[in-house]
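Issue 218. Parser rejects a valid record. Input:
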Amino acid sequence: MARKTTSKAVKQGTKKETKNQVQKPEENQVFISEADQYVFGQGTHYDIYKKLGAHPSVENGVKGMFFAVWAPNAASVNVIGTFNDWDEDLHVMTKIGPIGIYTLFLPGVGENEMYKYLIRTPEGEKLYKADPFANYAEMRPGNASKTYDITKFKWTDGTWMANRNGKDYNKEPVAIYECHIGSWMKHPDGTKEGFYNYREFADRIVEYLREMKYTHVELMGIAEYPYDGSWGYQVTGYYAPTSRYGTPDDFMYLINTLHKHKIGVILDWVPAHFATDAHGLGRFDGQCIFEHPDPRIGEHPDWGTKIFNYGKNEVRNFLIANALFWIKEYHIDGIRVDAVASMLYLDYGKRDGQWVPNKYGGNENLEAIEFFKHLNSVVCGTYPGFLTIAEESTAWPKVTGKVEEDGLGFCFKWNMGWMHDFCEYMKLDPYFRKNNHYAMTFAMTYNHSENYILPLSHDEVVHLKCSMVNKMPGYPVDKYANLRLGYTYMFGHSGKKLLFMGQDFGQEREWSEERELDWFLLAEEQNKGMHEYMKELLTMYRKYPALYSIDNDWSGFEWLNADDADRSVYSFFRKDETGKNNIMFVINMTPMMWENYMIGVPKKKKYKLLLNSDDKRFGGQGHEIPAEINAVKGECNFKKYNISFDLPPYTAAVFIF
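Output the parser choked on:
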């Protein structure tokens, strides 16, 4: 006969029959009260992850593990695991209220025990589910949850956290290094997996980021996921850093180390959809409690994934509490929200008959819109220095607009339009660039509409799109010269910056999650030069406020000549509120030498050369540009003064004045 274990915790918070008072829980006891259940049902229990899941607890002076799961349609739920030899009848959970939460306290259960919930449906079906709120998981291909205490780590990043809360990142330099841990660099021990753990990775990535002068690292694929080839974008464990690289404490060490060296950490976050694996969230208790039950609303046909039901209070609570979980428990500095467009549009990636219009007959997902407003209001309102970043690929208005003005409330939006125009232009043979000149100037016509990040992400260097350097036209030496031009244009243009790993030294192969970056290329002259050039660009970007302090207003950017299409030359300058240390860019996108090239300038001053992309130490041809050029009186490009110099082929010249 099965033994039923009833947790004392489920009785806490109720009145005793003999005494008209509330029974107090023991110290270090986890329990779920009626208030917890009510607030979770309203969608506003932002600490629900401290109650649902598996948590160390004490009852009657005995240490053990408190388990709690939301399964409203279950006939019964059991906890099975290594602590009970996966016995399917031994540990029955108790349903504690109408919302459908089941709980159980198991004395003697400690950390690193594998477990699942065995959910029996009213129809007699058995479902073996990982814990949606688990803090740790079995290393794939296993898929069990693991017990873990995430409260033990001793943080030492108090100064970083305090300083972050006072920052306005619209006025700060933001240069993000997008990174996939498993393929950044393989472990030299030669194991099959070849992964550095979080701690080993921390020591190596910090050294690299500090050398290159990036301000932030964006980590791909951290929340637990079953399939390496999804890169972490089809998640099963939203509350667990992937065990591929170690324990939750190991991940905390990584964040703490990065903060110690003044490097912010952004996580890719995926509220748009989730994996359909049997142990995951889909049909969790036999019915669709996380996804919408109508497949026209609840499924992505192209991706083979499930869509969260944003109209359901508990589901919104699951996701918003998850964002707060990474902030509060792991000290994350930002989230880049994946596939925002797929959430905003009901017909995204769908044909007629595959989607259902909203109540007004339109294709806008009204519930997802409200979810984003709720998310950003709570997160940004509570943590003012935290970044929420939307990967949004359409012209949806006010993505970074204030919620009270009917915006979505994000801090930044990826400028996918700029990325597309940039890549298409840079791929052109220089002969044809004059006919597409305005592809590179167009983004400034709408730059003021949002707070933008200019992304050259992993999506641009996979699926036969070529690496960044191999998008460029010409012979190898031309490709690298073109890439130096492109990056200079990117760092001069308004908007924060993001670059995927490997592209800063001219990775030549497309990215694959199965192998490390081609670090051996740094022994080659062109790659070494590219690496050095990017270091110079990043250093310059962080040094001069003119390059970052006004990114979404014309007061921070001015064209000197946006119309020299025949020679494919762009010239502009950046400025800040002080009007001092303005930075001027002159970029020749052709292999032609333009002798005595004249540019109209705003002031009669000395224009001092900061950077010449054709310098030999960067892999260039070594054409010289004067170190200082005096402006002379004479109208040019509607300016009263001008400078002139020989502008070398495929060269970007950067001046300060």
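Fixed in the parser; the record now loads. The chain has three domains: 8-146, 174-414, 416-437+456-495+529-541+553-657.
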